[in-house]
Amino acid sequence: MLTEENLKKAEEIRKKYPASQAALLPVLWIAQEQDGWISEEMMRYVGKLLDLPYGHVLGVVTFYSMYNSKKLGKYHLEVCTNISCMLRGSDKILETIEHRCGAKPGETSADGKWTVSEVECMGACGGAPMLSIGEEYYENLTPKKTEELLSSLK
Amino acid sequence: MDRYILPEIPNYHKLEVYEEHGGYGALKKALGMKPEEVTDEVKKSNLRGRGGACFPTGLKWTFMPKQTTKAKYLCVNGDESEPGTFKDRQIFEFNPHMLIEGTVIACYAMGITTAYIYIRGEYGKWVKMLQKALDDAYAKGYVGQNILSSGFSTNIVLHKGAGAYICGEESALMNSLEGQRGYPRVKPPFPAQNGVWGCPTTINNVETICNAPLIINKGWEWYSKIGTPKHPGPILVGISGHINKPGVYEVATGELLTDLIYRYAGGVPNDKKIKAVIPGGSSTMILRGETIEGVRMDADSLKAAGSSVGTAGMIVMDEDTDLIRVITRIAKFYYHESCGQCTPCREGTGWLWKILKRFEAGDAQESDIDLLMDIANNIEGNTICALGDAAAWPVQSMIRRFRDEFEKRVSKSSSKNRASVPVAS
Question: B231-318 is classed in which CATH architecture?
Answer without folding.
Answer: Roll (3.10)
